[in-house]
Specification:
194 residues, 2 domains, mainly alpha
Length: 194
């Protein structure tokens, strides 16, 4: 008893699906005819299936390649979008900082160039006065440093003189004690001689 080989039938989505024919063959003559016709049909069908499979494999590879390229492009676009967002955020921050600087400097964006120039002149004048004051302060600091050194030298001299005075006072006290002892000894010697 021979069975028929399932035939591939294209479906609506373009994918080949085998079709099963479950028809039993009851007679030898029909089976013999089927066996004779089957090898040629089978070879043609297998060749068509191989061609379709190769075509599908190629199409699948192309789709994967296109998908990879598209994904790579999407990643690049996302990176560019992220960079543009950062740049936009930085520009907004800079714009806000400039606005704050204008407000802090009390500059009205609608001011005339003459008013801005006048304010710039005032700012330069204040800077010059500040620089002069800083120079005077530096000079005062230098003079004060010199005077501190001189004051330390004077303090050292006073300390030395104080120590020398104390030494002289101690020597005077010793001298006075020795003179008193000599006077007593002299008086005793006079008392013995008299």
């Amino acid at each position: 008893m021979a069975t028929k080989i399932p035939k591939a039938v294209p479906a609506a989505d373009g994918i080949l699906k085998p079709k099963k024919d479950n028809i039993p063959v009851a007679r030898k003559n029909v089976a013999a005819k089927a066996n004779k016709a089957a090898p040629s049909n089978r070879g043609v069908q297998q060749a068509e299936l191989r061609d379709q499979k190769q075509h599908l494999v190629t199409a699948n590879e192309d789709l994967h390649k296109n998908l990879s390229e598209t994904q790579q492009r999407v990643d690049e676009l996302e990176q560019q979008f992220s960079e543009l967002q950062k740049e936009n955020t930085n520009m907004k921050k800079s714009l806000n900082d400039c606005h704050v600087a204008l407000i802090a400097a009390k500059i009205d964006p609608g001011e005339t160039v003459g008013e801005i120039a006048q304010k710039e002149d005032q700012r330069r004048e204040v800077q010059n006065v500040s620089r002069d004051l800083l120079n005077e302060l530096k000079t005062f600091g230098d003079v004060a440093s010199t005077q501190v050194v001189q004051l330390e030298a004077i303090n050292t001299t006073i300390k030395d003189l104080t120590e020398a005075r104390l030494g002289l006072m101690q020597e005077r006290d010793l001298f006075s004690q020795e003179a008193a002892e000599m006077e007593r000894a002299l008086e005793e010697a006079e008392g013995l001689l008299a």
